[in-house]
Amino acid sequence: MEYRLLGRSGFKVPVLTFGTGTFGGKGDFFKAWGDTDAKGAARLVDICLDAGLTMFDSADVYSAGAAEEVLGAAIKGRRDKVLISTKYTFRHGEGPNDAGSSRYAITRATEAALKRLGTDHIDLVQLHGFDAQTPPEEMLETFDALIRTGKIGYIGVSNWSGWHLMRALAVSERYGFPRFVAHQAYYSLIGRDYESELMPLGLDQGVGAVVWSPLGWGRLTGKIRRGAPLPADSRLQSSLVVGGGPQVEDDYLYKVVDALDAVAEETGKTVPQVALNWLLSRPTVATLVIGARNEEQLKANLGAVGWKLTPQQVAKLDAASARPLAYPYWHQAQFPERNPFPV
Hints:
Radius of gyration: 20 Å
Strand order of the largest sheet: 3-4-5-6-7-8-9-10
Helix content: 25-40%
Oligomer: single chain
Number of helices: 13
Shape: globular
CATH topology: TIM Barrel
Strand content: 5-15%
CATH architecture: Alpha-Beta Barrel
């Protein structure tokens, strides 16, 4: 398993991270993702560790905290062998302060996560969404205190816009607070918006991408084909999920899948393995969060590492998945001499 530095830090993470959204199965929304219990989770952790995958990502809203509890039980007795990342910001209770990134919310969310995970420290904490009502000074000062006590190692964000993240990084520089070194962002062959603003920011400021849904919300599993119905076990079948995920036009999706099929045949790999490997060739990408409901899915995803696409194969996938750029990025792209960042 390859390890990469997480942004501009000395912290190394495996290029694949196991996402625990399938743990717990509490509530209709997350039950549609999966309902792995502690015993099943322990077996998946075994497989991950055998492959060198040591990082596990969760969130306080995954199955109302049950995912963290299941993960904690699965790693009991081997905390020193794993890296834990988790997230919080979204509403997790009925109180007026049970959401957001205030000092109150961050402090209590950290303590609750530590308890559920059965640990005394979390290696990486990411703010799950942007909170426009809390000043970045308050967020970062709170994280500074938690890092100094050893409860948190590194910090990141998730689903932030570029100017929100840049503003926070400027606050860190001004006051000497810890910097966000990770951005858990949506990025896939059929979702390349990350490249326009967030990737150049990550390159310039040293923020590593922790990629969520690298298979495009389940569309790049190799099971979705032109003219064929959705597989019965696809998360896209759920009415709870369809409206909340990134939307993709059928013609565009099939064009990308056709290119993936061609490269998969050339390499002897599967469609999802090729899609994941393409992401690992992209600038700023530190790790991909992969999920699995069972051992078979996990072992298949682990096959995405240990090999590389050729430049010609990358170019084929780039061309098939290219989208018209939004302004001002289409204008900037016309002047590569003055704009060295990928757009």
